[in-house]
Structure formats: C-alpha cells, structure tokens
C-alpha cells in the first residue's frame, strides 16, 4: 500500500493515557461548569451515584476504585451542562432556522427546560403546560381508529422503571408497536442467540474474562465506544490470554492501550501490546473468517487430532452433523474471497482457538449491521460450541451492548414481538388481555407512517429522525403523522421534523436528582452482563419544569386511559411500587427492592450459562447457513460496477450516536471535521481522485431513488481495498430503507454499495 501521510496524521500516543485525560478536561471546561461536573464525574458508577449514561460495559464492584473513562466523562458532562433551552430560546428561533444549524449546534444549546408545542403558523415552538400537553396527547391517541396507528419508540437510556411503565401503558392502550434503538443495533444478536441458545443475551459475566485464555473481538471499536472494556482486555493479556481482534480498520484503541488512571504507565508513556493478533477482514467478511477457522479445526480433527468437544455437541446441541457437513462443503476459495484474509491468517487464529481451554467471543456493530448478521452470529455460536465454550467458566458469547440500558429495556418488555410468556404474565398481574399480534419495529414503523398506517408517534428519548436510515424518506414519513412527541433531554433533529401537532417534553437525565412524593428516587439499569443495579442522580435539576420519565409516562397514561389498569399517578409516588410490579411479572426480579440494596447490584442469571436451553428442542441449535451469495445485500450488489465501493458508517471519538460532542476523531487523526471518507490510497488512485479532494456519494439500490451524501473529503487510510468508511448520522441518507438484515430487519449500516463522484456544490441539505 502506498503510504500517504499528508492528510492523515494518526494520533501517535497510545489510546487512553494523557491524550484521553487532556481531551476529557477540555470537554469539562467547555461546559462552563467544571467544578460541578468533576464532582458529578467522580460519582459515576459508584455505589452511591448514578450509572454512567455512556455505554453498557459492566464493572467489577470495587468501591476503592474511581471509575470513569473519557467518553463516560463526556456523556456525563454533556448532560450536566448549565446551559438551558427554554421558551425564550424557541421564541427567538424558528424551526426553519434551527433546521439550518448543525447537529452539534442543536445539542450544544443545553438542556431542554420546559414543555413546548409546535405552532405551524409562527413556525415556532411555544410554551404549553404539562396538563395541556397530556390532554393533547390523550386527544390524539383516543381519536385513532385503531391503537395500532400509534408507534412508541424507545432509546436505550430509559431506566427499567420507565421502560416497564411505558410498555404497560402502550399495551393497555392496545398495541405492540415498539420500535426501539435495538432494532438498529443488536437486534441480530438477540434473534440469533434466542434461536440458537434460547436466550437473547450474552452468556458471560465480567469475571469470566479473568479466566478466559482466548478472547475473539469481532467488529467493534472499544477504544472509543466501550473504553472500560480495554481495561478488561489488558488484564486478559496480562493473565496470558490471547486477544484476537478482527476489524476492517486498524483501530488505535485496540492496537495499543494505557490506562489513564495508572500514573506509572502514564509517566513512562509506555504502552503494552494489547492485542496479540489483529486481522483486517473485508466488510461483512466475518462469517467467512469464522467458517474458515471451523474448517481448519475440522481438518485437524479429521487428521486425527482431538479438538472438538464431542460430548458437548452430542449432549447439548442439535444440528451439529449438518453444520460440520456444511463446513466441509464450503470451499476455501470462497472463504478467502469473502473474508479478505489469507489462509495462513485464518489458520493462525484457528490454532490459537484450538490451544485455548476457555474462549470468549465478543462483538458489536461490525457484526450486527450487515445483511447476513444473523447467520454470522449463528456461526459464532457454532464456533464456540465446537469446543464446548458455552456454559463453562471463562467462556461464552458476549454481544457488547451500546446504550447503557438497552438490554434492560428489552428485559422489561420493550419488544414489538413479545413472548407469549410475557403477555400471559401481564394479563395475570393486571387483568387485561394485552394485544397478541406483533407490532412494528423501526423500519416497519417508517413504512407504516409512509402508508398512513401510523399517525401518532411518541419517542421516549433518542433521535429517531437522525438515527434511522434513508433520512429523506424517514423525514417525509414523520411529517405525515398527526402527532409527534419527543421526550428528551437535549434539542436534536427529531424535534425539527414535526407531525401536524408536535410536542417536546423535557425530562430528567441519569445525573439529575429525581424527587417524587415519597422523596428522592433511584432507578435501575442492566448492563451487558445481566447485572442489575440502582442509579440515583446527584445534580439539582436545572429547571423546575423538567419531569422524570416515569412521571411523564404515568401522566400520559392517566390522561389517555384513566386509572386503567392501575392508578398511574400513585405508582410514581415511589418507584418501589413499579419495582414490585416488575417483580410480580418477571420471576427473576423477585425481591427486587431488597436486591438492589446490594452494592454492585444483582445478577439476573443466564440459562445457557448453566447449559439449560430454552429452545423448542431443549438443546442448543447449531444452524447451518451457506456463506452469503454476496456480502452486500443483493439489490445493491447487482448495481455494483468495478468502480463501486462498500461503505460502512461508524462513530467518531467525539460523538455519542447522533450526539456530536466535537469535530475531532483523535485516534484516527481527524481534526475539526466530520465530512471525511476513509479510503485505501490505491482506490483513490484507481478511481482517478486525489487525497484531500471532496467527493459526493451515491448509494446503489435498485429502486431508482437517488440517495446521496455530498462533500466528503478523501482521507487515505489503512482499510481494505474496495471498502470505505464515514461517520453516521451524516451518511444515513445513503442507507436505503429496504436494505435490512435477513431475519433481524436491522438497517445494513455497515454494508452500503456506493459510487463516488467529484463533488458538486449545490448547498442543499437533506433535512
Ligand atoms: N463514545 C461512544 N460510545 C458509544 C457510542 C457512541 O456513539 N460513542 N454508541 C453506543 C452504542 S449505541 C453502540 S451500539 C456501541 C457501538 O460500538 P461499535 O460497534 O464499536 O461502534 P461503531 O463505531 O459502529 O464501530 C464499528 C467497528 O466495527 C468495525 N467494522 C465495521 N464493519 C465491520 C465488519 O464487517 N467486520 C469487522 N470485523 N469489523 C467491522 C469498524 O471498523 C469499527 O471499528 O457503542 C456504544 N458506546
Ligand atoms: N448509519 C448508521 N445508523 C445508525 C447506527 C450506525 O452505526 N450507523 N447505529 C445505530 C445504533 S447502534 C443505535 S443504538 C441508534 C441510536 O439511536 P437513538 O438512541 O435514537 O439516538 P441517540 O443519538 O442515542 O439519541 C440522542 C438523544 O437522546 C436524548 N436523550 C439523551 N439522554 C436521554 C435521557 O436520559 N432520556 C431521554 N428521554 N432522552 C435522552 C437527547 O435528546 C439526545 O439528543 O442509531 C442507529 N443508527
Ligand atoms: Mo447501539
């Protein structure tokens, strides 16, 4: 590869360390509230404080240790700002004017401080009382000819208490239309795990990493997105474990790491090698990589070695013979072509696995946002099963969740396809028959809005307009609604894409003190390791007009349903009442209010971990899939020419999903810009462009709709030829609504076929 470092000056220090602390401090100071925020920060993930609103990585309980990471600090600080957005702000700025501003500008204005309603005559948001806001919601919801014309979105920061009340309200109202951020995130993990091992969650705890002797990390960037995971990986390496990383990009955080809280390492500026091997497969190539490793194991087994755990396979799985046959039949040529790795690399990785007694596989969006994500995760489970690596200490499957309580929200029943057990349990406890038919997930909700089948949209957090695919189509869909309601902490693009009636309801965040009639409340959250723990805010709310999420949900329910099936307002006087209801519905939460008094929280348990398989056959199921015909969705691949490229959309270091904290991406060497396109230098040359030149992206999808994202600067990067990368949400206009994963319906945000053209200035914004 031709080296080109004119435009690309990657961060030269180790990830973590001084660079991380310096950046954290800069963000703290920028909020004009430094002392208050540092105080807040120090309470993050402490037994007395709040759960970090950053990621869902777990934490060993150790009261002596201050736990924060750079990105947790940014998330806390962003929420705990002293800037406010109240009626005066909206009186000054029309929605049309706000639409012209950047996402960074919108969120930077501060915390939403009072409820407002959109007035289309003035094109401005105007104050509304809470009572009138709930009356308006009730009026719209009651006017719907069918409850299925309402859709109720959840973003993964909602607490268990808020999520439980929300699903109860929506089901009592009469629908399972629960689009949620999970649909765009780990949906494929939930689907693949449930259909293979009978439970849609990971099977490991944080302690398992101490016992593991091999960890495979597929398709994730923990240096930016789960920084505390790097501590764990570093400890694994120190314990002598192999850490094998598979990532299309060489991510700095995974290459080297030093911890900001280890002064000795910081002073010497030394960094230990973290990963013992790093492979860069093609986008979407992981299934082929894993198939290749399985094939090599099988070849060694067939040659007389004893590597497979036949006892496990025979006693605990179904379908292993068919799977092994499928592995034998898969030609190496196809494995090498789709993976983009050499046979040596794949065999090397397979041999590390063969040497290990206890192996963990972790993964995130690099695995879940493809067309064939479910088959890929099935392949991961098969791979683990081959050597009995499920249900023994130090081994198992670890989908690393994103939002801090996205896993808990699902546990609480935020699910458009609820299990019969959940519905029956709700019926038994609350005495009404919940809707039995499945509801709409994210993509179906957008389609239904387009077709006029969904008329009222309520969002418990998040940024639906910016986070979802096909931005133009989604915006048009949202605008066809009669009512859009956003329950939010910060101003974002979704507030500007309004239905005929639109409300913004300002809520408390994780860091705020939540005072209800019985006193200060705590809520609970669940991390990626199924640990549930309490979280209580520490900051005085900025405005007396902000309300807690449970209170807002209870008030909407009361206004819409009266006291059916419960006295909503009495329930939120003390969240202990909500937890009692949760315990009645979910047996694993028995004694909930007592259990959360334990420092560090309690473990929900995992059946697969005990080798109990809640599947129809009572065993784990090894699914055999062929490798996909193409690693791009077919509708895109048939449009590809030899000039076309495959785009992945990912996160920069200075963002939290659609929240843009700043314009740098330190580890990737980007300063002060986000409209960049990471590309292999030989592709730049082959396509006749120059590094630094601006290009427009045109998405390939066989439906004659032009989808573009314009003005991206070419940045030469260490990325496989034919693959490119750019930030989300700027690239969401390129993701066709119909480009979704098989079985999961997850937008294929990591495999989009595109053509590049020289940039033409036209000044148009998509939204
Ligand atoms: N600071 C911060 N923390 C966050 C978030 C945030 O935005 N900012 N978001 C939170 C959320 S909701 C989530 S879901 C997680 C997301 O955490 P990640 O999954 O780490 O997020 P992405 O930025 O989408 O990164 C995808 C990574 O996978 C790689 N990749 C992409 N495609 C492929 C592929 O086909 N194969 C392989 N092997 N690698 C691939 C990319 O190069 C990139 O390193 O982080 C959570 N934590
Ligand atoms: N192209 C592309 N698209 C993607 C992805 C991708 O990798 N590529 N990733 C997908 C993934 S993994 C995810 S999880 C989704 C994320 O989708 P969302 O969860 O919908 O988006 P966020 O950006 O996390 O939402 C940010 C907003 O949430 C609100 N908020 C923050 N904290 C709170 C709170 O405590 N309560 C309430 N009520 N509101 C709060 C603020 O107003 C803030 O503006 O995006 C998905 N979209
Ligand atoms: Mo996510």
TrEMBL record:
<dbReference type="GO" id="GO:0008863">
    <property type="term" value="F:formate dehydrogenase (NAD+) activity"/>
</dbReference>
<feature type="domain" description="Molybdopterin oxidoreductase">
    <location>
        <begin position="117"/>
        <end position="487"/>
    </location>
</feature>
<dbReference type="InterPro" id="IPR006657">
    <property type="entry name" value="MoPterin_dinucl-bd_dom"/>
</dbReference>
<keyword id="KW-0500">Molybdenum</keyword>
<dbReference type="Pfam" id="PF01568">
    <property type="entry name" value="Molydop_binding"/>
</dbReference>
<keyword id="KW-0408">Iron</keyword>
<dbReference type="GO" id="GO:0016020">
    <property type="term" value="C:membrane"/>
</dbReference>
<dbReference type="GO" id="GO:1990204">
    <property type="term" value="C:oxidoreductase complex"/>
</dbReference>
<protein>
    <submittedName>
        <fullName>Molybdopterin-dependent oxidoreductase alpha subunit</fullName>
    </submittedName>
</protein>
<dbReference type="InterPro" id="IPR041953">
    <property type="entry name" value="YdeP_MopB"/>
</dbReference>
<dbReference type="InterPro" id="IPR006656">
    <property type="entry name" value="Mopterin_OxRdtase"/>
</dbReference>
<dbReference type="InterPro" id="IPR037951">
    <property type="entry name" value="MopB_CT_YdeP"/>
</dbReference>
<feature type="domain" description="Molybdopterin dinucleotide-binding">
    <location>
        <begin position="645"/>
        <end position="751"/>
    </location>
</feature>
<keyword id="KW-0479">Metal-binding</keyword>
<dbReference type="Pfam" id="PF00384">
    <property type="entry name" value="Molybdopterin"/>
</dbReference>
<dbReference type="InterPro" id="IPR010046">
    <property type="entry name" value="Mopterin_OxRdtse_a_bac"/>
</dbReference>
<dbReference type="GO" id="GO:0030151">
    <property type="term" value="F:molybdenum ion binding"/>
</dbReference>
<dbReference type="GO" id="GO:0045333">
    <property type="term" value="P:cellular respiration"/>
</dbReference>
<dbReference type="GO" id="GO:0043546">
    <property type="term" value="F:molybdopterin cofactor binding"/>
</dbReference>
<comment type="similarity">
    <text>Belongs to the prokaryotic molybdopterin-containing oxidoreductase family.</text>
</comment>
<keyword id="KW-0560">Oxidoreductase</keyword>
<dbReference type="GO" id="GO:0051539">
    <property type="term" value="F:4 iron, 4 sulfur cluster binding"/>
</dbReference>
<dbReference type="InterPro" id="IPR009010">
    <property type="entry name" value="Asp_de-COase-like_dom_sf"/>
</dbReference>
<dbReference type="InterPro" id="IPR050123">
    <property type="entry name" value="Prok_molybdopt-oxidoreductase"/>
</dbReference>
<keyword id="KW-0411">Iron-sulfur</keyword>
<keyword id="KW-0004">4Fe-4S</keyword>
């Amino acid at each position: 590869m031709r080296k080109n470092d004119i435009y690309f000056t990657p961060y030269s220090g180790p990830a973590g360390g001084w660079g991380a602390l310096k950046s954290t401090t800069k963000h703290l100071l920028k909020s004009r509230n430094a002392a208050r925020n540092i105080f807040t920060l120090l309470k993050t993930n402490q037994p007395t404080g709040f759960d970090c609103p950053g990621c869902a990585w777990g934490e060993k309980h150790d009261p002596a240790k201050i736990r924060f990471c750079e990105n947790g600090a940014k998330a806390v600080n962003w929420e705990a700002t002293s800037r406010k957005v109240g009626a005066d702000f909206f009186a000054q700025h029309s929605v049309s004017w706000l639409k012209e501003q950047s996402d960074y500008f919108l969120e930077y204005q501060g915390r939403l401080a009072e409820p407002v309603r959109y007035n289309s005559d003035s094109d401005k948001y105007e104050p509304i009382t809470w009572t009138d806001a709930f009356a308006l919601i009730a009026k719209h919801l009651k006017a719907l000819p069918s409850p299925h014309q309402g859709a109720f979105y959840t973003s993964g920061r909602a607490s268990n208490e808020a999520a439980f009340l929300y699903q109860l309200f929506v089901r009592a109202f009469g629908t399972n239309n629960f689009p949620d951020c999970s649909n765009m995130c780990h949906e494929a993990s939930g689907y693949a795990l449930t259909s293979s091992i009978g439970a849609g969650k990971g099977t490991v705890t944080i302690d398992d990493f101490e016992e593991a002797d091999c960890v495979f990390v597929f398709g994730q960037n923990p240096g930016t997105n789960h920084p505390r995971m790097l501590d764990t990986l570093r400890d694994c390496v120190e314990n002598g474990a192999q850490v094998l990383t598979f990532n299309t990009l060489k991510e700095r955080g995974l290459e080297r790491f030093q911890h900001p809280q280890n002064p000795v390492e910081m002073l010497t500026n030394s960094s230990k090698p973290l990963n013992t091997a790093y492979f860069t497969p093609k986008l979407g190539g992981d299934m082929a990589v894993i198939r290749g490793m399985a094939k090599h194991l099988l070849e060694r087994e067939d040659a007389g070695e004893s590597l497979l755990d036949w006892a496990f396979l025979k006693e605990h799985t179904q379908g292993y013979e068919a799977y092994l046959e499928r592995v034998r039949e898969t030609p190496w040529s196809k494995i090498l072509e789709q993976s983009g790795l050499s046979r040596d690399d794949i065999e090397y990785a397979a041999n590390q696995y063969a040497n290990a007694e206890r192996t963990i596989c972790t993964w995130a969006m690099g695995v879940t946002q493809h067309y064939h994500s479910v088959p890929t995760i099935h392949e991961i489970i098969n791979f683990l099963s081959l050597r009995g690596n499920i249900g023994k200490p130090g081994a198992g499957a670890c989908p690393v969740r994103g939002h801090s309580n996205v896993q808990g929200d699902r546990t609480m029943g935020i699910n458009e396809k609820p299990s019969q057990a959940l519905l029956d349990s709700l019926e038994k406890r609350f005495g009404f028959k919940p809707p039995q038919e499945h509801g709409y997930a994210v993509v179906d909700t957008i389609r239904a809005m387009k077709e006029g089948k969904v008329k009222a949209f309520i969002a418990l957090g998040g940024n639906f307009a910016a986070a979802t695919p096909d931005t133009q189509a989604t915006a048009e869909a949202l605008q066809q609604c009669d009512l859009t309601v956003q329950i939010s902490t910060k101003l974002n693009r979704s507030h500007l894409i309004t239905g005929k009636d639109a409300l913004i309801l300002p809520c408390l965040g994780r860091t705020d003190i939540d005072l209800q009639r019985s006193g200060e409340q705590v809520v609970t959250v669940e991390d990626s390791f199924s640990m549930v723990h309490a979280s209580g805010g520490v900051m005085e709310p900025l405005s007396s007009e902000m309300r807690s999420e449970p209170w807002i949900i209870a008030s909407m329910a009361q206004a819409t349903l009266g006291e059916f099936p419960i006295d909503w307002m009495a329930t939120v006087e003390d969240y202990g009442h909500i937890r009692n209801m949760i315990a009645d519905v979910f047996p694993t939460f028995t004694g909930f209010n007592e259990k959360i008094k334990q420092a560090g929280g309690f473990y929900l348990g995992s059946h697969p971990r005990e080798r109990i398989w809640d599947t129809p056959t009572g065993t784990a199921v090894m699914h055999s899939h062929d490798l996909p015909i193409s690693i791009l969705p077919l509708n895109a691949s048939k449009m590809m020419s030899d000039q076309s490229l495959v785009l992945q959309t990912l996160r920069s270091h200075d963002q939290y999903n659609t929240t843009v904290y700043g314009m740098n991406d330190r580890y990737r060497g980007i300063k002060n810009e986000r409209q960049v396109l990471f590309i292999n230098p030989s592709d730049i040359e082959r396509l006749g462009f120059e590094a630094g030149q601006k290009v427009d992206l045109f998405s390939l999808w066989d439906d004659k709709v032009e989808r573009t994202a314009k003005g991206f600067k070419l940045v030469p990067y260490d990325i496989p030829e034919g693959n490119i990368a750019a930030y989300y949400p700027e690239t969401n206009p390129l993701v066709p609504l119909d480009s979704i994963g098989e079985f999961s319906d997850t937008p294929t945000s990591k495999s989009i076929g595109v053509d590049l053209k020289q940039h033409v200035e036209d000044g148009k914004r998509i939204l």
